[in-house]
Every structure is written in structure tokens, then in C-alpha cells.
Amino acid sequence: MSLTLAITLKVVLLSLAANGTPILGKRLLGTRLAVPLDGGRMFFDGRPILGRSKTLRGLLLSIAACALTGSVLGYPWSLGAAFGAASMAGDALSSFVKRRLDIPPSGRFMGLDQIPEILLPLWLCRDALALDWPSIVVLTVLLAAGSLLLSPLMYRIGLRDRPY
């Protein structure tokens, strides 16, 4: 396993930037620039493709925050941007699946809410982050558990609308 404390901390910071920035953006900007990624369109099953909570604003803020965070951590800005984009793609994938399962936007589905947005960027950026598969598994478990623990705290301090 190639996982070190330094790599773990860097991945945690990238993941926080990727997934926390859209939440902060919503708090700071309200409904401004909250254009749904799916344009409000429905899939052929009559359900939203992603739902109203997946916005262009969140995608762009996540990519920008990860590009900046990656640069600060000594990575190329492009790696940070790729990490943010992959995290948001994983989040969009989970939303797509949740809509197919008739779970409403911002509805809870433990595991599906955390794993794709963590696993996809780790897998896509594995070489640049010097991660092997055991490290990716460990980081996915750690970050998923951390997300489950951090969400209620973010709710209590008013950053999230729901405790999950």
C-alpha cells in the first residue's frame, strides 16, 4: 500500500474542497446562479435526470476550489480541477441513480451519497496522486465515514439544510 499521512491529508483537503464548496456557495449565493445541470429536463422514465440540487454553480465552484487547493498543495492546478470535476461527476451519477430509484433530490441513500463522489476522483487521479488500489479503498472508506460524521455538524452550524 502506498498511502502516507501526507497523501491522506492532501486527498482529504481536495475532497473537502470538491464537496464543501458547492454547499458554501449555496449558503453565500442563495438561488443566484443556481442553474440545474440537467436544465430541468426529465429522463424518459418521467423523473428528473439529476434534480434541481445539482447546479452549474456547484460544478464550477467545485472545480475552481479544487484547482486552487491542488495548487496550494503542490499539485498542478489541472489535477485539482480534474479531481473536482470527477467528484462532481460521481455526485451527479449518484443523483441520476437516486432519481431512477424514486428518491427525491437531496433524499438520503447511505453509501450511494458518499462513495461515487469519492471513488471516481481517486480512481481517475490515482497515478498523479500516487495511489494504489488498497489505498483507494482505505481512502474511500475513511472519506465516506468522515462525510457521515461531518454532515450533522455542518447542519447544526447552519451550513447544510439537512443533517445528512
Which term fits the overall shape?
Answer: globular
Q: Structural class of the helices, strands and pairings?
A: mainly alpha
Question: How big a fraction of the residues is strand?
Answer: under 5%
User: How many helical elements?
Assistant: 5
Instruction: State the share of residues found in helices, binned by percent.
Output: 55-70%
Report on the biggest sheet: none
User: What is the number of E strands?
Assistant: 0
Question: Can you characterise this structure?
Answer:
This protein is mainly alpha-helical and 164 residues long. It has five helices and no strands. The longest helix is centred in the first third of the chain and has 25 residues, at 5-29. The protein starts with a helix and ends in an 8-residue tail after the last helix.
Short structural summary:
By secondary structure, this protein is mostly helical.
Q: Any chance you could write out the topology, listing elements then pairs?
A:
Blueprint: H1 5-29, H2 56-72, H3 77-100, H4 115-124, H5 133-156
Helix pairs in contact: 1-2, 1-3, 2-3, 3-4, 4-5
